[in-house]
Amino acid sequence: MGQALGCVQVGQSTVAVKERFGKFEDVLDPGCHCLPWCLGYQVAGELSLRVQQLNVRCETKTKDNVFVTVVASIQYRALAEKASDAYYKLSNTTSQIQAYVFDVIRSSVPKLLLDSAFEQKNDIAKAVEEELEKAMSGYGFEIVQTLIVDIEPDAQVKRAMNEINAASRMRLAASEKAEADKILQIKRAEGEAESKYLSGLGIARQRQAIVDGLRDSVLAFSENVPGTSAKDVMDMVLVTQYFDTMKEIGASSKSSAVFVPHGPGAVKDIASQIREGLLQGNAAQ
After folding, report:
1. For 224, phi and psi rounded to 5 degrees?
2. pLDDT, tens digit, 9 for 90 and up, residues 20-46
3. If you count DSSP H runs as helices and E runs as strands, how many of each does the chain have, helices first?
4. Nearest CA among 139, 134, 124 for reference residue 72
5. How far apart are the first and last CA of the chain?
6. Three-state secondary structure along 151-197?
């Protein structure tokens, strides 16, 4: 705002309060105005129409006796059509707004538990906005927006809440790990059972194949070599297998086989045992 030779300039987004001999006369809009000071006209002051923001920190406690600091952000502006009320009725706008914010927060938050206070931030902000709108409209101000930007518990309370959260997550992780170990053990047991079942089938088939092979060999040898008995054929097959086994053991440089005193004559005993076992098996069938 500039004044020279009785001319006054009012800036954009601003209004000026015009007085004559100390009495309110009019509200000057943005632009240039003529105020002959010799006739008692003067500009008492300016009033910004821009949206202003006031951050209010209010300490209170919740229903579960936890002290918290609530940070509220109040966005307000003066109304051009009520500029005279906004200029004359309040001497300290920010103090008036803070008083109403304190009153609403300290009457609302003590009714809520700490967790509920975090969840109902919007309800608290709405209550503050309604109270301010009702109170400040009579003074020429409009409440544009009210926000509860933060709720700050005491540092020890924060630490305790974090520890509770961490313990809960660790308990959940332990439960999930135990469930995973249980599934692994079940799957491992099922795999071992299936493996043993298949191994048993393989051994049974192997033995059946050996029996069938020996039977075919005995029959073929008896038909092609007249005068031989089944016992002679079995003895020859066992001796052949004995020497094949000894050859395979000796061919490996890293063999872990342990030899016990024995002689070729032991093959006869082995043959007798195998033959008796086959005969007993045939008798059982």
Report:
1. -85, -25
2. 888 888 888 888 888 887 788 888 888
3. 7, 9
4. 124
5. 122
6. EEECHHHHHHHHHHHHHHHHHHHHHHHHHHHHHHHHHHHHHHHHHHH
